[in-house]
Amino acid sequence: MDKNIKKNNARTITLTILFVLILVxxxxxxxxxxxxxxxxxxxxxxxxSGEVTASGDTIIFTKGNTLxxxxxxxxxxxxxxxxxxxxxxxxxxxASSKTNSASSKYFAGVIIKNNTYSYTTTDKKPEIILTVxxxxxxxxxxxADNLTFVTVNDNLKGFDITGVNGAFNIVTDHxxxxxxxxxxxxxxxTFTLTFVNLGTDQTENENSTLxxxxxxxxxxxxxxxxxxxxNGDNLxxxxxNYYNGLNTASNIYYHDANLTNGAxxxxxxxAGANPNNYVCFGSDxxxxxxxxxxxxxxxIDGKVKLIHAYGATTDMLGTDEGYVSTxxxxxxxxxxxxxxxxxRYKWNKANNNTWSTSxxxxxxxxxxxxxxxxxxxxKWKNMIADTTWYVGGITYNNGQKxxxxxxxxxxxxANKDATTTVISKIxxxxxxxxxxxxxEDYWTLPGWSSSGNDYRKSKNDNWLYxxxxxxxxxxxxxxxxVAFDVYVTGDLSGGVVDHSLGGAVRPSLSLSSxxxxxxxxxxxxxxxxxNL
Length: 532
Fold this sequence. Notes:
This protein is an alpha+beta fold. It has two domains: 49-223, no CATH class; 226-531, no CATH class. It is built from seven helices and 29 strands. It has helices spanning 2-38, 235-246, 314-317, 359-376, 378-382, 404-411, 431-436; strands spanning 49-52, 58-62, 67-70, 83-87, 90-94, 102-113, 128-133, 148-153, 156-160, 166-178, 184-188, 190-195, 209-217, 252-255, 267-270, 278-280, 293-300, 303-308, 323-326, 343-345, 387-390, 421-424, 426-427, 470-475, 482-486, 492-496, 508-510, 516-519, 529-531. The strands form eight sheets. Strands 14, 15, 16, 17, 18, 23 and 27 form a seven-stranded antiparallel beta sheet that branches.
């Protein structure tokens, strides 16, 4: 009897296991059938990653090749052919069996990086053209982010991106639709990059570089600091997030130990021709006055450092002490300030280059200018941190005749004169800040060289260059009557501190580390707004 019981128990266990296995198989089959009903079948030729929409449809984006141009004497000669690069990204939409139709929207844009091409003609004829054709072969003639559309000739039209870097949405909310799950719809775009052969001397662009990532995606491409920052966020964190979101397409460089020829101080610095780094400071007007536009040098030592965008006016600095005259006119000026109000100032009205005794420092900048801010609202002065300025100076060899890294090291870095300092709210830019404001391709050049292979080459790719003769805070340690300045041609020179003609002065300051972002995209017409 015990044997029969054991046999029955064994049979029961076996049947139970078989029953459970049958249930599992049925569940898997039901799940498979249900999934097949809800989702489309993705064919083997699909490239790229897909996204399932809320209705169960699938949209798949196929990334094209990176567009790049590198002109040299072998592939680009005067009077020869244009240089081109083309890619064809795709979007595929498939309807689910549940709906038998599908509709979705997507964005098309570009991320332009390492663009060192510049205009070589005085009238700035377009040289780098991006032509975009939609799925119907129609040329897109407007950009959501305001790229400039031009017609070069009957056979060449597109966006002029000469010298342009950054992220740009070109087409927004573009519709793709299909009415059958048995078929699929594919949008194939054509992006063509052209270096226009003008038939003139374009050797300035020899060995220039340019890389473009073409982006097709469901969401808007983040392009400005406002896409990474909200009202009340810490401004310094916003800058770091802006860089982390777009890297150098934001025109920000992170100067850690891995950045070739960088400062190595873990700062975030804006560089290039025209980054979106404008800040409205000293005014709450709906439209920020030009006199109140500043630009962010970078996030340095945990504080956001600003410099006046266009040049200080006599209303800002006064007409005493270092004041000489107003500019009136300046053929090389690139800014949007009023030259009838922008002042010329001596670095020091006495013939010595000690910054602590310069009345341009003590009176014009740290008395008159602060009083000017108080006249608007005392909150502005309260936003400015006290800063230790290293003003021991640098030699001609380490400043004017050196590259960015060497100037940085001897000015404020490991080899600085740490014994000669001034603590104040307002100063001027350092030589190395001017150097690092250019795109990284120029960081190995000297500020000046008799060969001409120097920072004159960077003037169209350096946002700190205004075209005015402009003082830096850095004195020459070789000559007690000289301080370094940016010359009108973009190179670095040494100027006599009490020269009768004077030079432009742009107040530079570090904001308190607690300053908050409130709004703005960082452009001149929509600058960043801040608050305590």
